[in-house]
Each structure stands twice: as structure tokens, then as C-alpha cells.
Amino acid sequence: MKGIRVAIVHNQESKSVEVTKRLTTLLEQSENKIDQDNPELVISVGGDGTLLSAFHLYNHKLDQVQFLGVHTGHLGFYTDWRDYELEELVESLCNDHQKSVSYPLLDVRITYANGKSDKHFLALNESTIKRGNRTMVADISIKEDLFEKFRGDGLSISTPTGSTAYNKSVGGAVLHPSINAFQLAEIASLNNRVFRTLGSPIVVGHHEWVKVQLQQSTDYLVTIDQFTIEQEEIDAIYYRIADERIHFASYRHMHFWNRVKDSFIGEE
Ligand code: NAD
Fold it and tell me: What CATH number is given to the structural domain containing 75?
């Protein structure tokens, strides 16, 4: 990657602002160029949330753009570089163009009960559906077949890289990011003699899709990563692995399970 166009997305923490200034100077002193509108590389400076924001800013250019995360707080899942390694990072941009990795994304399509046009989103971590403070009732199908009738607080549908985020908090499994599949986890399902769901998270293959057919059409909160979409009149939501993937540049290999251990367990 010699002389590439770089965009920087940072959060408002003073450390991130200072790191962004240093990084901009280093990039301009090398053969690279800052280009916020038409970048080949997007660098996020902050935490996982900043990388999620960067992804949503540039998710219409996924075939042209690679991402890279610098963390200014604790080690993140999408942020491989530390704030004191900026010289090394700029150097690696010039030399290590082979080192990239890509991860699956979640394709979300919402259809409406009132005939409104479908809406389409991409999620890097997950999408959730909840119904205000009332019970959500939905038929869940895998491909064409009804799988279960769900009653409860809601559902979380996550990517492998999102499996360590909200999914983990609702009892989902942590998936290695090389697995090309998505996970459906229940949020407080109602299980008794009348209503019955599987009660455990399921991992759905990349050639399959999940349809969540809602029984009432109002009061739903749908999230796509950090965004909440308050939609009225939803009919159904379809989930599958997207055709697009997110590409990370200058990827530094850290054993995935070491990262999980480092983040959630720590030293004995
Ligand atoms: P935020 O700033 O509150 O971030 C929440 C935490 O999630 C941060 O510590 C962040 O580092 C971590 N995180 C984000 N993506 C991760 C990933 N893939 N693996 C492990 N940890 C990850 O919120 P935000 O910045 O707006 O980020 C939105 C994300 O936060 C959502 O996509 C969701 O996954 C997560 N979240 C989690 C919970 C929960 O666990 N109960 C609740 C709300 C949101």
C-alpha cells in the first residue's frame, strides 16, 4: 500500500484527539494522503464503538475500503494497534499490504405491514429486536420452515465478531471469527407448558436465513450495532450472512482466544 488515501474517524476523548493529530502528521509526512471522502483505508482512533461508527460511515464502500483500529483505552476486539505505535503503523501501511483479514457481516431486511418499502441494513456486531416493555411474540423460521414460536423480551442476532459483545451478555456462545455463520440468542424467553422455545442459542449457516415474523406490528425497537431504529408497523425481519465482508488492513495476529481471555478472564 504505497501512497494511499486515508480517512480518520475518532471519538472525542482528549487522548484520541491528540493521537489523531500525531497520526495525521505522520501520514502527511509519508507518501500517504488524508482523504475523508474517498479513502482506501479508514483508521478509527478510540475503542470498538469508534470502529463501529467508522464502519457505518463507510459501509457503502466496503469493496473499496479497508479498516484499521487504533485503541486509546483498553484492548478492543476491532482495535489492534496501540496509541504509542503510530510510527510502526504508518511504516506497515507502506510495506505490509498483504496482511489483511476479512470478517462476515449480518444482512438485515425489514418488511412493513403497511406496504412501505423494505429497509436494508448491514451490522458488524449484531441486530436486536425488543418490544418496549411488552412481551414480544414472533414466529421464527429457518429458511422456509417454522422453527419455533417465541415469547419473551426479544432476540439478538449476531455476527461471529459480534459474539463477544451483546450476544455474550445474553448467554450466547463466543464464536471464532473465521466461522462464516451467525447466531440467534434469546433474551428472556417465556418457557412453560404453553409456550416453548429451544431455550439455547443457535448458530445458523451462511447458506441459510432466519425470518422473524412479528405477531403485533407496533412498539418494536430494532437495533443495528449502536443505532436504535424505532419502527412502527413492522411485519417481519430477515437475517442472513451478507454478501459483503469487512476487510481489516495491516492485521496483527493475536490469537483470538488469547484476546478473549485477556478481555474477560485476565491473569489468574
Ligand atoms: P458502548 O460504548 O456502551 O460499548 C459497549 C462495550 O461493548 C464497550 O466496552 C465495547 O468495547 C464493547 N464492544 C463493542 N463491540 C464489541 C465486540 N465485538 N466484542 C467485545 N466487546 C465489544 O456502546 P457502543 O460504543 O455504542 O457500542 C455498541 C455495542 O455495544 C453494541 O453493538 C452491543 O454489542 C454493545 N452493547 C452491549 C450491551 C451488553 O453487553 N449488555 C448493551 C448494549 C450494547
Answer: 3.40.50.10330
Nearest atom, ligand 1, residue 168 CA = 40
Is 118 in the same domain as 199?
A: yes
Residues lining ligand 1, Cβ inside 6 A: 47-49, 52, 76-77, 125-126, 161-162, 164-166, 169, 225-226
Range of the domain at 49: 3-98+249-263
Known binding-site residues for NAD(+) equal 48-49, 125-126, 151, 153, 164-169, 188
Q: Are 150 and 136 in contact (CB under 8 A)?
A: yes
Name the percent of the chain in helix, strand, coil, to the closest 5: 20, 40, 35
Is residue 108 domain-shared with residue 232, that is, in the same domain?
yes
* CATH number of the domain encompassing residue 180: 2.60.200.30
Per-residue pLDDT reduced to its tens digit, 63-118: 999 999 999 998 789 998 999 999 999 988 877 666 789 999 999 999 998 889 99
**Model pLDDT for residues 239-266, shown as the tens digit of each residue:** 999 999 999 997 677 789 999 999 999 8
